[in-house]
Amino acid sequence: MSPETKTQAALEVLDLTVAFGPSASPHIVLSGISFQLGKNEILGIVGETGAGKSVLAQALLGLLPGDGRITQGSVTIAGKPIAAMSEGERRRLRGGTISLIGTNAKALLDPVERVGKQISRVLRIHRPCSRGQAWKETIDLLDKVGIVDPERRARAYPHELSGGMAQRIIIAMALITHPAIILADDATLGLDATVQVQVLDLLVERARQLGVSVVLITHDLGIIAHYCDRVAVMRDGKIEELQPVEHFLAQPQTAYSTSLLGAARAKPTRGDRLAAPVASAETGMDKDRILVVDNLCKTFDIGGGQPPVIAVDRVSFSLERGETLALVGESGSGKTTIGQCLLRLLPPNSGVIRFDGQDIATMEEPKLRPLRRRMQMVFQEPYVALNPRWRVSDLIAEPLDLLDRVPQTERRRRVDELLEMVQLPQHLARAYPHELTAGEQKRIGIARALATKPDFVVFDEPTTALDIRVRAQIIDLIRALQQDMGLSALFITHDLNSVRSLAHNVIVLNRGRIVELGLTEEIFEAPKDPYTRTLLAAELPIEWSDTRRSGAGRSPVVALGA
Amino acid sequence: MRTWLMRPGAAFGAALLLLQVIAIVFAGLLAPYSPTTADPLHTLMPPSASHLLGTDVYGMDILSRIIYATRINLLVSITAVAGAFAIGVPLGLIIGFYSGIPSAIVMRLFDFIQSFPVFVLGMALVSVLGQEIWNVALVLAILFVPVFARLVRAEVLSLRQRPFISAARCSGATDRSIMFRHILPNAMTPALVQLSISVGMAILLTAGLSFIGAGVRMPTPEWGLMVSSGAQQLILGVWWVSLFPGIAIVLAVLCFALLGDELRILLDPRRRHR
Question: In what residue span(s) does the ABC transmembrane type-1 domain sit (chain B) (predicted)?
Fold first, then answer.
């Protein structure tokens, strides 16, 4: 990299090494990170949990937590190394020249202050102007980041806003000082796919218009493919490769990148999947159906004299033996509530749930208990669904202890068998949940659900919050288990890719109602309902195309340092 | 456990506890005099070689009385708190798990007990029941039941909502198995920490009740009573009668407060390995 290019770069990082812990035996978190960020460039940084992405963002802002420190190398922003800056200069830098958009916008906003005030305060710190002037600029900007009725929204408190709206507020806060660089650290994590594309479209479009450079930190290769000019792949605190996205997608240079792309693109061929059972609602005798749901309703009282919230509104469907049905929809569509009603973790308000011919919607708990061994659930968040004080062997064996009452030797044999089934080593039987990775915890959850050899399993968001490669492994595992055990499964998810690879039939839910129901292929290829179309359009396939999102004003790839 | 004892707070607390246990077990061997024999010829003697901590207004040896008093003070406090724990924890578990009208009634009863200043209620109850040492223990137990029950109930209320409870229900667990196998072990930590802190508080209360004359009576060796018997002499420059039992109270309370704090660290499940 020649020194002449330096003047071009908005941000230059050279051989950056960051360490935590005692200086005698430091824990190196980042080592030898070097890259340049060109003016008006969008650089994606992708990597799995623990790769050091967030620490990098913190180092760039000079905000390393605890005893973290830069032990080597330099960060140069707009031609000036941050190490040479005074504390005051650094403060002006943060929020003024370089600003951060973090994950979980609602937690980043002060809950007791109006959001407009919080934005205008940032402006007034960096550029002296009157309150009135700052407020006016805030309203203008809120309008530009797509907030309807900005005057009123600016006077709202954070809890009055939706997640997507709060994220826009954070974006406005980052843009208000016209910074040269924006760091977006997993800025859309936890948002629904449709909201995610809206927020990212907006951020990238604004950045292109204003000539701002952006570092997009993410673990979603779809986001990289659609919004970034160049991509840096991080692993274990190092940059594995750095090149234009187009080349990266076509020809990754390292084996690690290849495996990441492979895992993210994994789309099963049709033959891969179970032969669809005779299927479709009209045919099929009642005895072929393991589950029949008729007019299920569930409301929640929110108190305060307000009318109850209708979470599930007259939902009817049925499930054949050996069938996999996916329930898709955004957050708040009622899909998890339906799953919990089916297993009677929540009592339904009305409707019939017939499991293998018996109506369980109103069945007494003692009568229901023997049926529980035949219907199980894999819970959404793996860690919190495991008792933190129990060892893995006891966690897996709990259903056996409660329902099958097997002798000790048999119990141990079954635990080993189940661990093998979910592809975990046997020595983990003695571990506690907090000693496991998220993927391992998920597998334990699956092993628990399969312990009693159930006929029907509800998988609640089995792939969310997992890294790309772990996600692919879990999907493979579920598919293999279903083939071996002939399970009937209800798949609750918003990850459309996993639906494609696992489900025979799909139900699309919106606000507690079924908007579309049918064969997976048909719905994905020819969605009839406008809501389904919106959902599908929000997907970001990992492919290079010239019609990328928000092409507006997109600059040609600046092949800096290439 | 070993690394835990390396912590200064834990080591100091454990050492103090050991000291008290030795005093309780070997009081007969350690005490140079009988704790209850008056000696009219040697009253209010300052600390000297024959009476290391001096004598009181009856001529009784203060060191011997402090050693013997450990038995009374500690045993009363520990019995009272243990009783309160044994009743309060299951009660808290039940009223936390089943929130209904009976639970609400129990909670209001706790409000009633706790709305009185502890000293006033303690005095009233002891004078109704009679100034017996075990009545003091009973009164303390009554005062501490709501403390434990409330702590456990609060934990249960939040644990009840956790997904692993739903997961257990899915696995076919009954209410009883959920309560005792899942909720109770996870709800115990604050109660166990409170256990140790409460013993310290009970020591202070026992001594306090005796000090104001609502606890045990002379000549029983008891720290609070000893402080009170020396209080009138303080103005005459006789400081040793009150000071030494006072130090004993401070050290005993400190010991259990320290152990309680350190217990919290020891009981964190994330500290456990393999």
Answer: 70-260
CATH, range A271-537 = 3.40.50.300
- Per-residue pLDDT at A244: 92
Quote the tokens at residue B12: 């100091």
Nearest to A82 by CA among A65, A50, A102, A58: A58
Among candidate residues A264, A349, A244, the one with its CA nearest the CA of residue A47? A264
**SS3 at position A213:** strand
SS3 state of residue A216: strand
B259 in Cβ contact with B199 (< 8 Å): no
The domain made up of A3-265 has a fold known as Rossmann fold (3.40.50)
Asked if this assembly's ipTM is beyond 0.90, the reply is no
> Which residue of A370, A389, A448 is in closest CB contact with B186?
A389
- Residue with the bigger pLDDT between B272 and A323: it is A323
Instruction: Kindly state whether residue B130 falls inside one of the protein's structural domains.
Output: yes
Do A271-537 and A3-265 have the same topology in CATH? yes
The residues, ordered by sequence, that sit 6+ positions from A414 with a Cβ below 8 Å of its Cβ are A397, A400, A406, A451
Q: Mean of the pLDDT values across residues A360-384?
A: 87
Count the neighbouring beta carbons within 10 Å of the beta carbon of residue B216: 24
CATH number, position B114: 1.10.3720.10
Closest-approach residue (CA) in chain A for B183: A387
Q: Testing the interface with A: which of B155, B165, B171, B175 to mutate, by most A Cβ within 10 A? A: B171
B23-65 residue pLDDT tens? 889 988 888 888 888 888 888 888 888 888 888 888 888 899 9
Q: Which of 424-453 (A) contact B at CB < 8 A? A: 430-432, 434-435, 445, 448-449, 451-452
Domain count, chain B: 1
Pick from B98, B155, B159, B164 the residue to mutate for testing the A interface (most A CBs within 10 Å). Answer: B164
Domain chopping of chain A, boundaries: 3-265, 271-537
What is the full DSSP assignment across A291-353? EEEEEEEEEE---TTPPPEEEEEEEEEEEETT-EEEEE--TTSSHHHHHHHHTTSS--SEEEE
Instruction: Report the range out of A264-268, B89-93, B187-191 with the highest average pLDDT.
Output: B89-93
Residue B11 lies in a domain: no
- The amino acid at A326: A
List, for residues B140-153, the tens digit of each pLDDT value: 999 999 999 999 99
Residues 149..208 of B with a Cβ closer than 8 Å to A: which?
162-164, 166-174, 177, 182, 185-186
Minimal-distance CA residue of chain A relative to B274: A431
Total beta-carbon pairs less than 8 A apart between chain A and chain B: 68
What percent of chain A shows pLDDT beyond 90? Answer: 32
Question: Taken in order A470, A471, A472, A477, is the CA torsion positive or negative?
Answer: positive
Does the predicted TM-score (pTM) go above 0.90? no
> Distance, in angstroms, between A405 CA and closest chain B CA?
12
Lowest mean pLDDT among A77-86, A279-288, A458-467: A279-288
pLDDT bracket for residue A416 (50, 70, 90): very high
Query: Contacts for B193-197 with beta carbons within 8 Å, 24 or more apart?
Result: B193/B260, B193/B261, B193/B263, B193/B264, B193/B267, B194/B147, B194/B148, B194/B151, B194/B260, B195/B81, B195/B85, B195/B148, B195/B260, B196/B256, B196/B257, B196/B259, B196/B260, B196/B263, B197/B256, B197/B257, B197/B260, B197/B261
